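pasting Isoprenylcysteine carboxylmethyltransferase family protein for the record, 214 residues
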Amino acid sequence: MADTIPAYGLWSLVVLNSAVFIFFAFSFFKPTTKRDWRSLGAFSAFIIALFTEMYGFPLTIYLLSGWLQSNYPGVDWFSHDAGHLLEELLGWRANPHFGPFHLASFLFIGGGFVLISAGWKMLYDAQRAGTLATTGIYARIRHPQYAGFVLVMFGFLLQWPTLLTLVMFPILVYMYVRLARHEEREVLAEHGDTYARYMREVPAFIPGLRRRRT
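structre below
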């Protein structure tokens, strides 16, 4: 019975899964400014591209089919499970949903959404109080929400890498870094030395990367 279920062409699942994850990100991120909407829009494009290949049309598999079939002749590359490329290429022959990359992807995706949610709450509370957000997660990194989006996208790359999302990923990371720098210039103009001191003490995206003075 399972063999009669198509692996791809499931466009209703493309729409459903894309909508669920975009709404999930929206509910965690709660965009208000044009910059926020651009951030969410870029993430949404990544998600749509991902699920289009996961359930709709496996472009990556088609483009690499000759090389894949020549080097891994025992794999049915147009089955759905074969889309978990990292597990297949490294010889994981059990259920790929329990493979090491798939399981690791859940940690990155879950951690990313936690960062996005925690960042929004601290920022919202600080804005209501008319102060800078420098406590909680903001005491560890300056841009938890952008870091969260990057973690979520990286998690999906571990789970279901495609040529398109691999190209999109560094472009989106660069975009988030530029957005973060633009925000910092605005906050510096408003808060001056207070924020400059905070920037010296707290790393932008990765905890533990404080600048050490000698």
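The helical segments are 11-29, 34-56, 59-71, 85-89, 100-129, 144-159, 163-191, 193-201.
Residues 100-129 form the longest helix (30 residues).
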